[in-house]
Amino acid sequence: MKDAFPEQSTIHAALEMAVRAPSLHNSQPWRWRIGERSIHLFADHSRMLQATDPEGRELIISCGAALHHLRVSLAALGWSCTIHRLPDRSDLRHLAAVELEQTEPQADAVVLAAQIPRRRSDRRPYRSSDLPPFAVTQINRNAAAYGMTVRLVTDPHSRRELSLAVAEADDIESVDVEYRNEVAAWSGQHFGADDGVPAKSVPPDAGYGGVRLRHFAHPEMQTGPGTVAPDGDVGTLIVLGTATDDVYAWLLTGEATGTILLTATGFGLASCPLTQPLELPRTRRLVRDAVLGGTVHPQMILRVGYPTTDRELPVTPRRPVSDVLDSSDGTTAGVWARPGQRDRVRGL
Ligand SMILES: Cc1cc2nc3c(=O)[nH]c(=O)nc-3n(C[C@H](O)[C@H](O)[C@H](O)COP(=O)(O)O)c2cc1C
Question: Which of 55, 193, 222, 268 is most buried by a 10 A CB count?
């Protein structure tokens, strides 16, 4: 039904799911606006992490992940989306205008949406086994739908080069006072905070299998006996790359990140972004040359693998939807209705 539009309660339910998306340091840098016949996503640059992400690249990736979760949630609720990315070229904060059409709830979307509340950034070690082929196929397929180049870094040489780039980035960032202050301000959070990385979500170990993980403030995760496998590893590293390096590519990277993380969760796999080497030009170039053959721009690194324990991680907090929803002043109506702006992504 072309002219139907969801009830407010349906839109709110979908937005509740969208804001469960991962974001850099749980900064949740998004704002939403509900138009008369559309939903709009805006980047909130007031929540940009100036020292870690001076270009705002990871901010846009975070918004892309939220856009993906919105799309999947709406599809699961019986609303298929046409997404107009960057609908207003004079305002690059306006990341997407989402048009809706009523359909039957899509079965694959229901499965994927069910993973949204279950997914966590899991910073514990993973088993050192390979990913199952069916998961690799599905991850490749999902990422390809968003035009990503996907590389599973499985050969020892590339993996070593990548772990060296991670270590170099960590060395540089950990002596940068502004970076350190920023990560300290956005992590080690306790009960009551509605953003930032909770102390309980971070284990004391900051690296496995020769790959370092980001140091957050006050790691307080209880690891306990039997929770860490003796062969604990960082897991399979997956690098996503794009042909261009602009807001559009970053947004699609976020969407692809959203679909890969939910797909992995659905297969019972643990996952976590690991993006330090992409935060400095030198180490980003190293990743580009070592993993992507010097051709495309690396945008995201994910670690994925089997968890070593079935102990659930605590849920991470989010700001309430009411805090990230602006009332529409009507200016967003119809600005995307120009030729050449239609959604070419086919898939969830
Ligand atoms: C662009 C981006 C970069 C991230 N980089 C890292 C990282 O380097 N290390 C890490 O442990 N988590 C990283 N994360 C995960 C966030 O910290 C996490 O999504 C956030 O704290 C919310 O927690 P949740 O994913 O468990 O819901 C990143 C997430 C995004 C979207």
Answer: 193
User: 8-116 sits in which CATH class?
Assistant: alpha beta
Phi, psi dihedrals of residue 192, rounded to the nearest 5°: 110, -30
- State the angle between helix axes of 57-76 and 8-18 in degrees (0 to 180), rounded to the nearest 10: 140
Instruction: Indicate the fold that domain 133-305 takes in CATH.
Output: NADH Oxidase (3.40.109)
Say if ligand 1 is within 6 A of residue 24 CB: yes
Residue ID of nearest Cα to ligand 1 atom 9: 274
Q: Is the CB of 182 under 6 A from ligand 1?
A: no
Note the pLDDT of residue 303: 97
Same fold? 8-116, 133-305: yes
- Strand runs (DSSP E) across 139-264, as ranges? 149-152, 187-189, 197-198, 207-208, 211-212, 236-242
Segments making up each domain of the chain, as ranges:
8-116, 133-305
Structure confidence by residue, pLDDT tens digits, 143-167: 999 999 999 999 999 999 999 999 9
